[in-house]
Specification:
This protein is an alpha+beta fold. The protein folds into four domains: about 35-130; about 135-235, no CATH class; about 245-295, no CATH class; about 300-350 and about 360-470, Calycin beta-barrel core domain (Lipocalin). Helices cover about 40% and strands about 35% of the residues. The relative contact order is 0.07.
Length: about 475
């Protein structure tokens, strides 16, 4: 019977992989994938805090592009957007940065412009933007407003906060009324110009009457004991409490000046000041250690992934669930479970009467486990550890900004059979979806070799937080 040697199978697999890789490179270079075939436009924001590369670009809640790049231009954030070829932007569109809920990721929202306007060409700029609300600035302005209100209240207290002030206000109103009456008498004896002047003065007098009526209302409320100023004026207990508080503050100040208590020693005793300075230096060193720890914590990332494979020769499916822990950019650990319908083969040798009998047994539908440690060198990552409950090694090659991954694994080194060799390619189709294809156990001497295809889903810990933040919470 005609058969293919193991070396020929390896050569055939490499040839097929090179053909597939060349074809995919041609397709990527000529057409691009997803939004790579779109056109670029630029928009400048005062701040792009929270916005990340590959973030969504939306019009009316529909995704029409992605963030291609974020850089600086004259001290502001230059955001480059890649738009779908079918989407045309009028020159007067408006761009703004928004977020999904409270904990959600940031995205760019575009408000359509005037229909019939000229469109922005590739490489052009969106000139209209909306600034994000600055909470710190709003709080600062509220503080200034509160200070102004306190100053006005203090001035008003000086003017109307006494019986004499109220009498003066009433006298002013009476004098104004008397002046108005005298002017009315003069009007009858004067010409039209004087009549017009008096009319204007009458209007001014009416406005003044309204103002004094408002002031009189404030005085009445203060006199009735309403509000803080009213309580200070009418309520003796409030005044006595304030006086006692000021006396207590004076007492404490005298003790501090005499060097009594902790604050007194701090101000008057140089030894206490020296000890405090030493303690502060020690605290600064501790804070530096905390800052370094926080920096390391920010580098720590975790990833959850599921990979499903369909074996064409056996008609079976294989599932992988992995947890990847990456404490550094170039170092990672993988823990996982593998659901293999073929299970695991166990070989047992039994010797009786000088004769050895070998028994082979398949444990079907057994859960296998994975525990690996890896190190990445630029575009290549090396792995070693436990592969499907056996020892092994693996190598990964990354291309196209990690959107394409080529993998080769070797494990289950047994003297009675060939090692389990596996090679496959994995391509990022969408943000969390990957397609894969390859050849499993391709030098098997037990008939287990099979091409396969499948898909995988991968989430980073930040993506999981976004998904949880987007789930609606029932009232």
């Amino acid at each position: 019977m005609f058969s293919i040697s193991a070396e020929a199978k390896v050569g055939l697999f490499v040839l097929v992989a090179l053909i597939v890789l060349g074809y995919m490179s041609f397709r990527v270079g000529e057409y691009g994938f997803g939004l790579k075939k779109g056109y670029l436009v630029n928009v400048v924001f005062d701040s792009a805090t929270g916005l990340e590369k590959d973030a969504s670009v939306q019009i009316a809640g529909v995704e029409v592009g992605r963030v291609e790049k974020i850089s600086l231009r004259n001290g502001k954030a230059l955001v480059t957007l890649r738009m779908l070829p079918s989407v045309k932007l009028e020159k007067d569109v408006e761009a703004r940065i928004k977020s999904y809920g409270i904990l959600g990721d940031k995205y760019v929202d575009i408000v359509p412009g005037t229909e019939g306007e000229a469109y922005i060409v590739a490489g052009g700029d969106i000139t209209r933007t909306e600034r994000q609300a600055d909470i710190d600035k709003l709080l600062s302005e509220l503080g200034y407003i509160a200070a102004d209100v306190l100053e006005v209240t203090a001035s008003l207290k000086k003017v109307v906060g006494s019986v004499e002030g109220e009498a003066n206000l009433k006298a002013i109103i009476e004098n104004t009324r008397s002046i108005t009456e005298n002017l009315n008498r003069v009007v009858t004896q004067n010409d039209e110009k004087l009549n017009l002047m008096i009319a204007n003065l009458g209007e001014a007098s009416a406005e003044m009457r309204k103002a004094f009526a408002a002031l009189n209302s404030v005085v009445e409320k203060i006199d009735g004991g309403e509000g803080t100023i009213g309580q200070l004026v009418k309520n003796r207990d409030v005044f006595d409490n304030l006086d006692q508080t000021l006396a207590s503050i004076r007492d404490i100040t005298d003790k501090i000046n005499e060097g009594e208590g902790t604050i007194g020693k701090l101000i008057n005793d140089e030894d206490t000041v020296d000890n405090l300075n030493a303690s502060m230096k020690s605290l600064e060193k501790s804070m530096d250690g905390i800052d370094r720890y926080v920096s390391k914590t920010e580098q720590f990332k975790t990833f959850l992934s599921y990979r499903g494979e369909y074996l064409f020769d056996g008609g079976d499916g294989k599932g992988y669930f992995d947890l990847t822990i990456r404490p550094k950019e170039d170092k990672f650990y993988i823990l996982g479970l593998v659901a293999d319908p073929k299970g695991r083969q166990t070989v047992t040798d039994t010797t009786e009467g000088g004769e050895t009998t070998r028994t082979e047994k398949w444990e079907r539908d057994e859960l296998l486990f994975t525990a690996q440690i890896g190190k990445r060198f630029k575009d290549i990552a090396l792995r070693g550890g436990i592969f499907e409950s056996t020892g092994g090694v693996g190598i990964d090659y990354f291309a196209f900004d990690d959107n394409l991954q080529l993998t080769f694994e070797a494990f289950d080194f047994d003297n009675n059979k060939n090692a389990h060799l596996k090679a496959y390619a994995e391509y990022k189709l969408f943000k969390h979806i990957y397609l894969l294809a390859g050849w499993d156990d391709f030098i098997s001497n037990e008939g287990n070799e099979s091409p396969f295809a499948g898909f995988s889903i991968k989430f980073e810990d930040e993506d999981i937080k976004y998904l949880l933040g987007s789930v609606p919470i029932p009232n």
